[in-house]
Write a structure and sequence with these properties.
globular; about 55% strand; 36 strands; about 675 residues; mainly beta; Maltoporin, Chain A; single chain
């Protein structure tokens, strides 16, 4: 995943100590089934030698400097941007502020190769996938920490920060098992926040159609060697149609403490959502409702000079209450579904540089646990559901994931080769070890042009919903095998100050792919391992900095185009697919940023989507047959006045009020207008 930081004059490089600004280390998880003694041995094994592990260093792209000297981390150890043999992209803060969106999910709609299928608007719930993968195959990270949900990928974007608090979003297209571990099957997305040394308070308030309210308050505080970022937000709406109302709250803290041994980073967050889930999981029952809570915390220490060393630990709890009937339940309805997942872990990551190149090694531990009245095996003793009087969990399941990795990167003139592998042990897989190798190659033809190629293997474990869910329209399968894939990729990168172009082609062979399928309209959706799915596609992204060519006084500032093509072929029976085969075949995004007058500016986004597959069409909760997805165009616009401390803006989503379907029978919102003001009070000025 791309990690970039500010570049100094000429071609010097400044090294920092975390994702998107300072040094950072990915970590996975500690498994509760691992005995304390075993854990101590593993910890000492990685930490014994010298002064310790670190993470990948990052560098932010700026058109004013030479990209050849910028370090990125698409591997376990940092490499320069010109040598990185992957498509990696970053959405910076300036682009976020200009975009006609109010949520992380909406912003990702514009990213190349990323498919966002929204159930609820404004970040209520959305499925995210990369390169034609399913929504369970993309790893989500917050400041480098894995926050993916083992219950279901539907909850992966339950992030305890709003878009207003995000500094950047970093996207790695393609499999990344050897870098990020299992479940980075088709891509990974890292959401980055960070404390600011400049003490300040930021206030943002917006209101709009359908009773929309979007309130954000954040601040940076520096006390001695401790720098803190604190943010809170609330977003709510009455809904654009019946039973689409929502109310969500976020609270987030991030701190960075400079100590003699090194840098200590810690973060904690909480999010609470309640929303009408009109036809979310079955259009036969449109009066659904869901409430979720997420609590998250992590800590890591970055130290070491020659041998970079970073131990890290995290914990994430997610609680979900799903109501098939928000009110007036059917006589046969036995009650709501309650789920609670606990994920915790520990990782150790290290790398050092020698005359032979860069060498990285380390270990990761992760424990995934669920308690439910629907998912898992029967518990010996029921457990009370937190916050729900008289309700109990009667089922549960736990699994442990242990990984060891090694990687070495060679540099020979303009050629770079990175070879690595991850050895992985998962308790659900008969306690067998599996190895996932990969190789990335890069060659620099000139300062502006480089080519790359890569080969990687990946795995994804079934979610607890895949394995165990049983409902009126769905049935899980506890005998599912993990998904496996082999991916080949190649591409070109061309970069000058005014023009950046990246092109890629990939081919993925997936085996035992998991999907919710059925053979006839009358059957329940059930999970199966499809025998084989082959995927191939191409991506093109181009961005023209018009101001660099025509001068800052020219009204048009920037033009951009992203195009992604993906095609799937299956080797399975003639199933109807609910997710895997409904891939986004064509996606085109056109961007235009321009000045209007003085400080008044506008940002336009035009998006075309053409999706494979069909969906079950319902009218008044009655099934009327299968219907193919129809392609559609959408336009979004933001007009804003901006000064160093203030932004006043008006956003129009779906400007031309298009009617379209993008996920099953869910009606998407039409034109939605909102307006707001953002103000920053800087105490250092």
């Amino acid at each position: 995943m791309k990690k970039f930081i500010n570049q100094p004059k000429r071609a010097e490089v400044i090294h920092f100590r975390h994702w998107g600004g300072k040094r950072y280390s990915l970590f996975q998880a500690l498994c509760k089934q691992v005995h304390i003694a075993s854990l101590a041995v593993a910890y000492l094994y990685v930490s014994l030698p010298q002064d310790a592990v670190a993470q990948a260093e990052i560098v932010k792209v700026n058109t004013d400097y030479n990209l050849d000297e910028i370090e990125v981390s698409a591997q376990r150890a940092p490499v320069t941007y010109s040598q990185a043999a992957r498509i990696i992209s970053v959405i910076e803060r300036d682009e976020i502020e200009a975009a006609p969106v109010s949520s992380i999910q909406d912003l990702l709609e514009y990213a190349v190769g990323v498919d966002i299928r929204q159930r609820g608007t404004y970040g209520v719930q959305a499925d995210v996938s990369v390169r034609g993968g399913s929504f369970d195959q993309t790893l989500i990270l917050l400041n480098g920490i894995n926050i993916s949900d083992p219950q279901t990928g539907h909850h992966n974007l339950n992030v305890p920060v709003s878009l207003k608090s995000v500094k950047r979003i970093e996207i790695l297209n393609g499999p990344s098992a050897r870098v990020y571990g299992p479940n980075a099957f088709s891509g990974a997305i890292n959401i980055v926040t960070e404390p600011d040394d400049a003490e300040s308070v930021n206030v943002d308030a917006a209101f709009g159609d359908h009773g929309l309210r979007d309130l954000n308050v954040s601040g940076n505080v520096k006390t001695g060697k401790l720098t803190s970022f604190i943010a809170s937000s609330n977003m709510a709406s009455n809904g654009y149609i019946q039973n689409t109302d929502f109310d969500s709250y976020n609270l987030f803290y991030q701190g960075r403490l400079t100590t003699t041994p090194g840098i200590l980073d810690f973060q904690a967050g909480y999010t609470n959502k309640g929303f009408g889930a009109n036809s979310f999981y079955s259009p036969a029952y449109p009066n659904q409702y869901e409430a979720t809570k997420t609590t998250f915390a992590s800590v890591k220490m970055t130290t070491g000079e020659r041998l970079h060393f970073t131990p890290a630990a995290y914990w994430r709890r997610h609680q979900d209450r799903f109501e098939l009937f928000r009110d007036n339940p059917a006589s046969w309805y036995s009650g709501h579904n309650y789920h609670l997942t606990d994920v915790y872990g520990l990782s150790l990551n290290s790398w050092f540089q020698s005359a032979w190149g860069k060498t990285a090694f380390g270990a990761e531990f992760r424990s995934e646990n669920i308690w439910s009245n629907v998912l898992g095996e029967e518990l010996d003793e029921p457990m009370d559901v937190p916050g729900e009087s008289g309700r109990q969990f009667t089922k549960g399941h736990s699994r442990t994931i242990v990984s060891y990795f090694g990687e070495h990167t060679f540099y020979v003139a303009n050629f770079t080769a990175s070879l690595g592998a991850m050895a992985n042990w998962i308790s659900d897989l008969n306690k067998e070890w599996n190895v996932y190798p990969g190789i990335d190659l890069s060659y620099r033809f000139a300062d502006q042009l480089r080519a790359y190629a890569s080969f990687n293997k990946s795995l994804r474990m079934p979610t607890f919903t895949d394995l165990y869910y049983a409902g009126p329209t769905n049935l899980g399968n506890p005998d599912l095998k993990p998904e496996r894939s082999t991916t080949y990729e190649g591409g070109l990168k061309y970069r000058t100050r005014p023009l950046n172009i990246e092109a890629a082609y990939y081919h993925r062979i997936g085996k035992d792919m998991i999907d919710w399928v059925r053979l006839s309209d009358e059957e329940k959706w059930h999970t199966e391992n499809l025998t084989e799915i082959k995927s191939h596609g191409a991506e093109l992204t181009a961005k023209l900095n018009v101001a660099a060519l025509a001068g800052s006084s020219f009204p048009v500032k920037q033009l951009g185009v992203n195009y992604a093509y993906n095609s799937l072929s299956k080797g399975s029976a003639n199933y109807q697919s609910n997710y895997v085969l409904d891939n986004l075949k064509h996606k085109l995004v056109l961007s235009l940023d321009h000045a209007i007058a003085g400080r008044l500016q506008a940002s336009w986004k035009f998006r075309y989507q053409d999706r494979n597959g069909s969906y079950a069409r319902y009218v008044d909760a009655a099934y009327v047959g299968e219907e193919n997805y129809q392609p559609f165009w959408l336009a979004d616009l933001k007009v804003f006045w901006k000064s160093p401390s203030t932004q006043i803006y008006c956003t129009v989503a779906n400007l031309f009020d298009q009617h379209y379907f993008d996920l099953g029978n869910l009606v998407q919102p039409g034109r939605w207008i909102s307006a707001g003001i953002s103000y920053k009070l800087d105490f250092n000025q």
